Amino acid sequence: MSQNNKSALITGASSGIGLATAKQLLAAGYSVSGIARDFSDVETIGMDTHSFDLSKLDALPSFLKQANLPADVLILNAGYGQFGGIEQFSHAQIRKMVDTNLVSHFYLLKHYLPIFKQRGHGDIVLIGSESALQGARAGAVYCATKFALRGLAQSLRADCSTSNIRVMLVNPGPVDSDFFDQLDFAPQLGNEFVIEPESVAQAILHTLAQPRNVVVDEINLQPIKRSFRKK
Ligand SMILES: NC(=O)c1ccc[n+]([C@@H]2O[C@H](COP(=O)([O-])OP(=O)(O)OC[C@H]3O[C@@H](n4cnc5c(N)ncnc54)[C@H](OP(=O)(O)O)[C@@H]3O)[C@@H](O)[C@H]2O)c1
């Protein structure tokens, strides 16, 4: 294990990509704070956990101020999928997805960008999706949030290039996580149809390990085969 005295804050750290990334960053010597609604199923791994619902935007700025979580690296990962035609979503469901998958990221950035700029360095990793690259049937709301993250990442990268702040976007295809638990479809069984959360975490650590003058601006990950099943 190497010690590097760096800190990371991960949203959506209670499962899947976020939890796998937390474990790998801890193993690399980072101190890691995590935000999610429920950490009760997470074994003790040395992460500093904070339970908060990121869709509660009115309370988010004061939560971030009070928690004062250290971050040299900010990994904006929290999100979920819900698929269907727009007319199948209630107004509240549309708001919740946009607030969780997109607007909460803006609030975290508004809190941490001044800190990064004052300190003179920082790394921001946004977890997008293949849905940030290509719209698809039944994906209007989810894809819109993820496309928006890509525009955010590209603009932020330009804004931050003179501040020693690196901005990376990671776009996975189907990942073997809790993401599909509430959905009526999932990747076909077999590891050729899914990416392991640990592989996404490895890609994130790879981007962070580049020399500071190098930004891996975007990574697209796919399983070697693509096929989905109805549950
Ligand atoms: N799985 C895939 O196929 C796939 C593909 C491309 C992109 N992604 C993206 O990858 C990210 C992570 O997903 P995953 O695959 O790792 O799924 P996951 O295992 O379901 O993890 C989602 C994480 O987000 C947190 N979260 C969800 N809503 C939240 C809220 N309102 N407030 C706080 N935390 C919240 C969850 O924690 P709690 O439930 O405890 O709050 C959990 O820690 C998401 O942004 C997802 O869109 C996933």
UniProtKB/TrEMBL annotation:
Signal peptide: none annotated. The keyword Oxidoreductase applies. It comes from the Bacteria. CDD domains: SDR_c. GO terms for molecular function: oxidoreductase activity. Keywords: Oxidoreductase. InterPro entries: NAD(P)-bd_dom_sf, Sc_DH/Rdtase_CS, SDR_fam. The keyword Oxidoreductase applies. It holds the Pfam family adh_short. Belongs to the short-chain dehydrogenases/reductases (SDR) family. This is NADP-dependent 3-hydroxy acid dehydrogenase YdfG.
